[in-house]
Write a structure and sequence with these properties.
The complex is a heterodimer of chains A (702) and B (325). With 702 residues, chain A is α+β, with helices and mostly antiparallel strands. Chain A folds into five domains: 2-64 and 125-212; 68-121, no CATH class; 219-344, no CATH class; 361-397 and 445-573, no CATH class; 579-697, Isoleucyl-tRNA Synthetase, Domain 1. Chain A is built from 26 helices and 22 strands. In chain A, helix 17 (493-506) crosses helix 19 (524-545), helix 22 (581-602) crosses helix 26 and helix 23 packs antiparallel against helix 25. Chain B has ten helices and ten strands. Chain B has helices spanning 2-11, 17-29, 50-53, 102-112, 175-183, 205-223, 226-244, 255-260, 263-282, 288-324; strands at 34-35, 62-71, 87-96, 122-126, 129-131, 136-145, 148-159, 162-174, 192-195, 202-204. In chain B, strands 1, 2, 3, 4, 5, 6, 7 and 8 form an eight-stranded mixed β-sheet that branches. In chain B, strand 9 (192-195) and strand 10 (202-204) form a beta hairpin. In chain B, helix 7 packs parallel to helix 10. Chain B starts with a helix and ends with a helix. The chains are: A alpha+beta (702), B alpha+beta (325). At the A-B interface, strand 9 and helix 9 of A face helix 1, helix 4, strand 4, strand 6 and strand 7 of B. Chain A: It is an enzyme of class 6 (ligase). Chain A: Residues 592-698 form the DALR anticodon binding domain. Chain A: It comes from Tunturiibacter gelidiferens.
Amino acid sequence: MADFLFEIGLEEVPARMIAGAQLELEQRVVKMLERERLVRSGAATKSFATPRRLAVRVAGVAERQEDMAEELVGPSVKVAYKDGVATPAALAFAKKAGVDVAGLKTITNAKGEYLAATSVKAGRGAVEVIAAEMAKELAGIYWAKNMYWRAGRPERFVRPVRWMVAMLGAETVPVEFGGYVAGTVTYGHRVLFGDREIELKDPGDYEDALLGGFVIAEVEARRQKIRKALDRVTRAGDPTGSGLLWREDHELVDKLTQLTEWPSVLLGGFEKEYLALPEEVLVTVMRDHQNYFAVEDKDGRLAPHFLAVLNTEADDAGVAVIRHGNERVLRARFNDARFFWEFDQRVPLMDRVALLENVTFQKDLGSYFAKTERVRVLAARWADDAKRLGDAEIDAKVLDEAVTLAKTDLTTELVKEFTELQGEVGGLYARAQGFSVAVADAIYDQYRPTSMEDRIPHTAEGQLLAIADKADTISGMFELGLVPTGSKDPFALRRAANGIVKILAEGKVPLGLWLIARSSADFEAVGETIGAFFAERLEFYLREARGQSYDVVKAVLATGSDDVRDAVARAEAVTEVRSSEDFTAVASAFKRMKNILAQAKEKGIASGATVDRALLTEPTEKALAEKSAELADRVSALRAQKNYSAALEQIATLRPQVDAFFEAVMVMSPDEAVRANRLALLEKVLGDFSGIADFSEIVVSG
Amino acid sequence: MTGSVSEVAKKKRALTFQELLFTLQRFWADRGCVLQQPYDVEVGAGTMSPDTFLRVLGPKPVRIAYAQPSRRPADGRYGENPNRLFRHTQLQVILKPPPVRIQEMYLESLVAIGIDLKEHDIKFEEDNWEWPVGGAWGVGWQVMLDGLEITQFTYFQQCGGMDLDPICGEITYGLERIAGFLQDVDSIYDIVWAVEPDTGRKVTYGEMRLAEEEQFSAYSFDYADVGKLWEHLNLYEAECLGLLSQVKDFGEMDELKLKRFPVLGAYELALKCSHLFNLLDARGAISVTERVGVMARIRALVVGVAKAYAAQREALTSLQTQEVG
């Protein structure tokens, strides 16, 4: 047994691809070793990654495969021997099995007597096997973008290969890939260690040997080093202890972990005057363009500092130089942003509305001006609907102003430069140009929520604008037949619909999904398709955002998918009671009733139109009829109050009557009238109590 | 802290703009590059010079380096913005096939221009390059020096819609950015271009180029006659298409006629169209709807030329092999 280490050295791998490739390499190596019977399943493994290397180490790898015996069946005895002499068929079989003819056995199977042999496949050495298999595993790794680099294009990979290490214990495994043969030599940090070789003696030395070469190969260790350095450097830059904090940003920490081999952190500053620019712009420049962390004071306000993560460790003079360089770049970037901001103010947003005619939304759907006009109509209509359906407070004038101006920031220089800030820039400009806070906020939030985790717009007007904008996009695309299929959703229509569902679930706008679907579409059939699409997104929302189980979601949506908030409340109530014994018993009984009714219908057996009390003969069926009639009123009152938990608790009290009924009564009585009446009773019970959810969908375990 | 920066800066005198260019040219000449002069037709980037765009095609090895003034009318700022230029200067290095140590060679070139790598933070961050109009793309990095993008490093994969084999390494230095960094100035216009050795007088970038930035920004944004620009575009396009229409006759041409067929001339016409498109765009004369269509027209020219260039090489090679046979 020995440890196996593999490392592939590469020119800088894109940060976004490293984590996936690290995991895939580890899985591929382990699977290959298992397949080749070189490790047992569950072997201890450890993987490493930096921008310039991916590596994996597996413990307890056998030095040889064990021999494998295999029983082979050959030709029939009749064919194998002629007059007691072995025929060519027998000789060929013996050769294939690797035994002498004399070593062949005879077996009897269903077809008669046949030759057989035990063939022993000799296990191969691990070094030989891994050397032969490894290249295929490397070639199979998925990369979002590949390249060729060698003449004749023999292989594709993410970036050119520069070296490989493959060792089984102290022994070299000569894996060949990308024009290199693996050895035992690796390399350290480009600048801090240069071209010098690092000779590995044993797979176990890997991390430590690389630390000597200024490379932290363990991803988690690098991440921790960065986080600690961010804390330390921020503290050091705050000698008076005023409460300076770096702004947490997990994505950026991840990115910088994958951009560095030997990270350190420095604190830089910028002139306070730039704080007059909107925080969104400053943070976008720092975070998205420069990979800097923003720093805030104890009140959460942006401070005139930034933190840069370096891929080096410099002395004080070096740090001063690097800080100076980074500050210089940031100042230039902020200057640009300020230039755009001031330049954009020369043309007010109102004057930009007309300019939207020149900005195409989609070639068959016209310009953003046309889109704006459509959204205005939808938003106004739905504001009326919302007032009619609930007590939503919507200021129609604010809404119309916000919708009219919503897309005008697409014509500004600042958005052309920082496309990720569209919407937000519009909101900031609206405020700067004297529009009301309500208008500005609605514009600012129009693209929210951009994910399940993102917040929804703050105000009712913002929510309506966001819904109408998204619904217009969805209906336009659906009418063009550009419907998402499978993994293809180039216009992010699912995300748009998820956004509508989330706003309806968590916001102040009392609109139904089907109302939005039907009222946004010009054609009835398209409206129905969109409604079904929304229902799917509601299902997704209940499962993913609300953590509801599959069967509860199905049960709840079976009775209606229009009112999102109501669906959420019903699902939560069902989940609350589903673990109670009485409820599960009633749910099972409902499923049984549904089955009986379905079977009767299939056989063409009619049920009565109403329950005729005179025909109820058995005491248990009388009891069920009485109790359920009594409960029906109570349940329907509770439902009307949307007190679903109480309603479900009431329904669960039906259990004794239901159990007794099925114990004593045979629904399919030979007496036609009795049978029809009993079927009518079941229909009534189901009908009265299935308004919250279709309980027959609830999966009852055990 | 700032004190120590000036200490460091004092230790060595930063290169002037022209010394920077000399040094990089010398560096790459010493590594086998032929130094070419800038191409004399307007281009938006060094990649569009035929020394890159056409030489990367085919199997023949190439090592070449040249400075290329690159015009981007929409980037003009009337000389008012200290960081943006209508016309900037790229130093383009083309290595086909790329040497194994190409990244290390590049880092050595930074040392050559006075950058002590141990005193700086250098990162190779993913940045893939694409010129859809030329059917060209590659993968690579932007090289970040203390947070400043100083170089675009690309492994060219396709050009003119054709796979490259061998591929080609392309290093594009942004000379103004690097000079501004080395000299530690906040405005491009303050870069010292040259120092008169006898008087010690400094000639600045602004002295040499500010008027050009002011006037060409005004021309691109305010003066250029949209109608005439369209006319020019149509004329250049027609002439380019006229040449490209003869490519189908390559099979019937004799060697002399074939090798004299002006594919290179057609390429200049295509470049003219590309520049006119950029001017019209800066002038705000191309609506978003039109944009796609005009770009497709120019793509047809540029990709058409690349294909013609490849066809011409191939036809010539086969004629020459026949002679030998």
